[in-house]
Design brief:
The structure is a single chain. The protein is mainly β. The protein has strands at about 5, 10, 20-25, 35-40, 45-50, 60, 70-75, 80-85, 95-100, 120, 125. It is built from no helices and eleven strands. A hairpin with a 4-residue loop joins strand 7 (about 70-75) and strand 8.
């Protein structure tokens, strides 16, 4: 499977901002559907954002972060970003990105989709 790479995490004070990045290896292009997830210790991963780059396009956000996050895509850089502002202690988690594979269907692109096949190792966000 293709291994994605997340970056941009770190330790920040409450109220700060971060830009998380999700990139695919050289010669591997991100699919039309890319999602961001986060995982608290001892909890299952939960979807926080997703972006569909097909006809019309669409973005999806979790209620817990809506208004504070923006997902975007730069096709030239083969990268999807997650911008988070006004960070709160409850945002502390490991953040992962995932992308659909060759058989991915457009109707399977939504927040927290379980049909994303390519994953990264995650980037830690710690807010104090």
């Amino acid at each position: 499977d293709v291994q994605l790479v997340e970056s941009g995490g770190g330790s920040v004070q409450a109220g700060g901002s971060l830009r998380l990045s999700c990139s695919a290896p050289e010669d591997t292009y991100l699919s039309n559907c890319v999602g961001w997830f986060r995982q608290y210790p001892g909890k299952e991963r939960e979807g926080v954002a997703a972006i569909f780059n097909g006809d019309g396009g669409a973005s999806y956000y979790a209620d817990s972060l809506k208004g504070r996050i923006t997902i975007s895509r730069d096709n030239a850089r083969n990268t999807v970003y997650l911008d988070i502002i006004d960070l709160k202690p409850e945002d502390t988690a490991m953040y992962y990105c995932a992308a659909g594979g060759p058989l991915f269907q457009p109707y399977d692109c939504y927040l927290g989709s379980p049909f994303l096949n390519y994953w990264g190792h995650g980037t830690q966000v710690t807010v104090s």
